[in-house]
């Protein structure tokens, strides 16, 4: 496996997190844009509460680093990453609601509906979702309108019916929320609920870079492997982690009766699956040579994370 020094990787991850934080701060300012009538203070405060000062910004990092393989300007990749992060943050707000996972803690702080109320949380999530599509269609993202169209369509599909939202309802069905005894396909749920947005972070770089079919496929394969590794690591952390490190309650999956990779494969089986996925991710991007070193390090980071 091509090596990237851990310190260099950490610096790059932190730099992207800082740049994304600053960009989101500007995008979520109180300044009214053309065609907007007002930016209500309660709504903006709630959107900022759930989007700023938190998270590793892994998804924007994947956009930036996959785009860097093709020499895409960093400013363009950061805008796409910010749009993706808005989708991610909206999904966390809605996931935490009483009707969904009913969580009290997120990133070491009260969840938004606990800090405010359910209605404000729902609307803050809606606001972030729609802002994402405002951002992704801006001229600054790419001079070619067709590239912006491809980015927008891919984001909608990864975030929507056949992606994250569809995966969420399958996950709830797996908890027995809707009655019946539907078979639970953990891999399919993961690919949709968690993996789809992580995969988008990888293919967005290929779209921005106007990659060849083979290059796009390499990043697509890498993104699918990384997404599954991320979810398995998350399932392992829910069993082996602690709330202080996670910033949210441990054991939540078991409390909700969820079927996970760990319940299906066992702890050792899940860890072996992660190792197999790391090898797959590494192989997928090997066509880029040394340019893939940071992406390979990102896959290791995902698999070995503690929170």
TrEMBL record:
SUPFAM superfamilies: Terpenoid synthases. Its cofactor is Mg(2+). Keywords: Isoprene biosynthesis, Magnesium, Metal-binding, Transferase. PROSITE patterns: POLYPRENYL_SYNTHASE_1 (PS00723), POLYPRENYL_SYNTHASE_2 (PS00444). InterPro entries: Isoprenoid_synthase_dom_sf, Polyprenyl_synt, Polyprenyl_synt_CS, Prenyl_diphosphate_synthase. Belongs to the FPP/GGPP synthase family. This is Polyprenyl synthetase family protein. It comes from Bradyrhizobium agreste.
